[in-house]
Amino acid sequence: MPQRDQSIYASAPVRRLLDDQTRAMTPDLQRCVGDYALLVGTSAEDASPPALPMLGCWIRMQVEGNRYQGDLLAASDEGLPFIDDAFELVLLQHALEATVMPASLLEEAVRVLAPGGVLAITGVHPMSAWAPWFRWRARGKRLTLNMPLRLMHALQQAGFEIEQARRVGCVLPAGVSAYTISTKLLGGGYVVIARKRRRVVTPLKIRPTPLKVPASGRLSPSTRRSAVI
Q1: Beta bridge partner(s), residue 165
Q2: Domain map of the chain by residue range?
Q3: Fewest Cβ atoms nearer than 10 Å: which of 43, 106, 130, 221?
């Protein structure tokens, strides 16, 4: 009888899925430009972000129970230890599954992402053949499989534009990775990429002020006549 791994994310099938997800999203993330990016993952072994030449510095954190480990340490119930609009790219690599507060982490990711920045989310699809296997292998740990459509709806409500949403990975955990029609429809994982809308600045409308003409009927040389006179 096969034994469950100490960490589901260290298992060979999930590691292959992580590779498939990285390959699927990297072309779209190549356009990201900025000084800082944030990766929130599930283990230090999977803390290698995609190679994006136009991004400066990556900060890596891992979800472990109710805490964040990695480059910075923090409690998950205290939020991410960053100021608003700090990153041009935030990558949640299966992090919404592993955290005990997925809604809070998503809100924090939205908060620390700069307007115009990109949020990328990966995970195991709950409506796939992977779901029963995933729950069995992770028995005893609190893991939440998130429906991509719900994530997309929440992001749209938060002012995001969805740029990519697709199924990736093998149909079965024991399968061999290959990009086929069945993968597009029944792949075990998903990738969602969304861009945060920039803040709209509403220009002030200047109202003309009626000009009072002196009793003499003459104006100073620097005064221009207009239709409001």
Answers
A1: 192
A2: 8-196
A3: 221
* Domain 8-196 fold: Rossmann fold (3.40.50)
C-alpha atoms less than 13 angstroms from C-alpha of 92 in its C-beta half-sphere:
30
* C-alpha to C-alpha distance for 14 and 103, rounded to whole angstroms: 23
Please give the residue that has the higher pLDDT: either 148 or 215: 148
For the segment 2-58, what is each residue's pLDDT rounded down to a tens digit? Answer: 444 457 888 889 999 999 999 999 999 998 999 999 999 987 666 578 889 888 899
Closest by Cα among 12, 27, 35 to 133 = 12
Nearest in space to 135 (alpha carbons), one of 227, 2, 4: 4
Cα–Cα distances in angstroms (integers) from residue 34 to residues 30, 52, 95, 107, in the given order:
11, 10, 23, 21
Do 162 and 156 touch, CB atoms closer than 8 A? yes
